[in-house]
Amino acid sequence: MAHRFPSAERDRLKDERRRVIQPAERIIDHMSPHFNEICMDLGSGTGYIAIPLSLRVSKVIALDAQRDMLKTLLDDAGGKNNIETVVAEASHIPLVDSSFDRIVLTNVLHEIDDIDYVVDDIRRILKPGGHVSLIDFPKRPTSMGPPVRERLDIEEVITIFDKFHVVNRWEFTEYYQVEFKKS
Question: Cα(170)–Cα(163) distance, rounded to whole angstroms?
């Protein structure tokens, strides 16, 4: 099984160091979300992206396999009524076809065992013309992140998402971001 971030260390997902290295607002700005979007944060963890994204879109479904992560997300969300949580594995997304305008994966693709299956499922639940925002660690040493051997290079990710159109891509010191569109 691929590396999974341990729920017991969930406070690390929202520490100040991460806010400097991987600023949520900059990530969301690159997405250019629209207020009427319905988004899924796949592998949302404690809501590092889901919570600030909820201020800019209509609704966010936060999906994570670890119930403790989602509990922390709801506690930190402060009663925002446009965030819903779903406890599920990325490989078993229990949601209807063509439900989402945008699916966000932040530092999670490297945790998925059957990536091709999950990418097909993302395609299934994404509306026509919908977007995938993928953020992850480069395949080289950085100050944080999973072991380098478990990471995916940006070019590998683009190949994996070959049924999508690349809208834009950014490479930073500690992470990269790719915006895809369902074709």
Answer: 20
